[in-house]
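Residues determine shape. We examine one folded chain.
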Amino acid sequence: MSNYLTTLLGEELVDKAKDTFSGMAASVKDVDTAMGKLYQTTSETQQTYENFLTDANKTATELGLSVSSLIEQTSAWAGMGYGFHDSTKLAEISALYSKMSGMDGGSAIESISALMDTFHLAADDISGMTAALSAFDSAASNTSTMEKLQEYISSMTGAELSLPTDTDSLTYTYDTLKAVSEIWGQLSAAQQGMVLNITGTELYKSGMESLMNGIAGDAADSSMIATLSGIGGSMQANASLLDTYTGKTSQFESAYQSLSKTVTDSPALKAITDLGTKLIEILDTVIDKVGLLPTLMAGIAAKSAFKNVGHNKMLLCHKDITIHSRM
């Protein structure tokens, strides 16, 4: 009974180990495939790629993203002509937007790319612009703030700031931005600064200026503002999600993918794999030249001879003991 349980336990451990390594192999394959695409779309040094992968592992775990998806997004941005550094930044944004919005990675990239073209944004501009929109949205939902803004613009320009009245409208924030943008160009730098102060967006001056210029020229419509809002919202929503069980699970999966790559890249495991490959190649050569049956028979004969050698030694040892015992 004891031997049976030991055997059963041993088989279960072997199966668990096989499943674990099988899962690791699949994870590593995804990462290696993604890196292969990155090599094709970029031309960096090996050290740069190694540093990138280290950073990608860390970022993916922190944000609850898969390492492979982050690499794929980087490759996609690089393929569109962005530099390696900008591509890594944009990949974080698009991968997170894809995750939280439910859209595929390609669609997320297309939406963000269109937004950047419309507002003439660089990779580093997006976070500031989403922060500016979020701050303005909060101000727009405050009646007293909007009344103060109307009074100020009227006193400075004599013009009336015509704000939308339907605060429940899906385009309310855009309509409010549109109204402000139509007067923005009439204001001096100091007056624009006061508008930023009233709306609580003074910390995001560059982002607000991009919003005003893009909307005033009719280049950006409400869908663009919705995309920008979605990007900012995805960042906030993901931060909250990471405190939940689902978020912790996604971080665990990211860490597992990173661990899988680390384990399979270890020199010891690579050496074992290389040895196994060489043994299979040798066996394949022998079978090809000699044939399968002779090879098997030779193996059986060698095993039998080895056992007999041990058995004969036991007999000789027993004979010696018998002779000495008679004396």
